[in-house]
Amino acid sequence: MTNSENHFKERNPLETIEIVKKFFNNKNLKIYEESFRESEIGTYSNRFELTTQTGLKILGANGKGMTPEYCKASGLGELYERFCNFCMNISNNFFTNIYF
Q: Per-residue pLDDT for the chain (100 aa), expressed as one digit of tens each?
């Protein structure tokens, strides 16, 4: 059940984080948290980058939230969504044949 206590989310943020990390790990890709900040009013923002094992950057996404956990789940959820929706240069057949 969604309500204001769980920020109207269906899933626990730590569960979301683990699911997304496992998804990319199974594709032999790495996730780096490039930045993590707390604002003056106690909200959080971050930036994640997705790379190959050799360090080639594939794409990035930002997250925000009322707690560090919701912020990280937000950023990783956005990264997952962008990856699954081909929000990158997918004209490279070499890359798409390996990861899709």
A: 565 565 556 789 999 999 999 999 999 999 999 999 999 999 999 999 999 899 888 889 999 999 999 999 999 999 999 988 865 555 455 666 666 5
Residue 36 Cα distances to 8, 51, 56, 64, 85, angstroms: 23, 18, 21, 10, 25
- Of 3.30.160.20, 3.30.70.270, 1.10.12.10, 3.30.450.20, the CATH number of 4-99 is 3.30.160.20
* Runs of H (alpha helix) within 1-100: 13-26, 68-84, 93-99
Cα–Cα distance list, 77 to 40, 41, 54, 82, 91 (Å) = 25, 24, 23, 9, 24
Q: Model-level pTM?
A: 0.81
Residue type, 31: I
Residue ranges per domain, the chain?
A: 4-99
